[in-house]
Design a protein that fits this description.
This protein is mainly beta. The chain is 12% helix and 42% strand. Strands 1, 2, 3, 4, 5, 6, 7, 8, 11, 12, 14 and 17 form a twelve-stranded mixed beta sheet that branches. The chain has a five-stranded mixed beta sheet with strand order 9-20-19-15-16, with no helix packed on it. It has a three-stranded antiparallel beta sheet with strand order 13-10-18. The structure holds zinc ion.
Amino acid sequence: VRIARFSTGSDVRFGVVEGDERQPGTLTVATLAGHPFGEAALTGERHALADVRLLAPVLPSKIIGIGKNYAEHAREMGGDVPGTPVVFLKPSTSVIGPGDAIAYPDVSAEVHHEGELAVVIGRLCRDVPAGRVPEVVLGFTCANDVTARDLQRAEPQWARAKGLDTFCPLGPWVVTDLDPSDLAIGCTVNGEVRQAGRTADMVRDVTELVTHVSRSMTLLPGDVILTGTPAGVGPLQVGDEVAVTVEGIGTLTNRVIKRG
Ligand code: ZN
């Protein structure tokens, strides 16, 4: 099931996206009563997807990032895979939705894309044992862990490098019935392939990451864990169109504008 968050005018709703993605004209969204965390019911209302504006599929209380979770990316960053996962936070104010603009900030001259698989948490949890991870995961979406690489090098804490406004595009929707263990993941800039990997190459898989993070902090419905980026990170420029695609989910596309 594909769960989207969308607006029609001033109304913001969750809904279930139905139809064949290869024929975008056939896609519709069936409105959910309330939210998708827990018992969800359809209202009976339905829109053509083309008539609604897709929003970030969730509003996380926190976004937890994982550094260097693909060995080849660790190498291109000039290091090894860390013995203990590097965990960082991105603020809720960094989240934007599909089609929203990434704002290139004045405080950086080196903004990079990082295409990633994002895990969306479905219920309040902590100390989740490996066998119960599927119970706490609502599903998966695409993410771009946009990073100011110059600030990341200059500052030991990555709060600014990873946390600038608009630096966490999420979407286009959450897919609930997906095995994340071996999916193609890619990132293009202006149609040119920059990153092309497989989630099977993660050093620590989704189960390990949820287990690890939930031992340290309580996860809330809608929280997001970014699972790391494959090799091929590189610069974005004002005017670029960047697209992250994960097999079985879809494509998250954002344009880069100058922060105004
Ligand atoms: Zn990342």
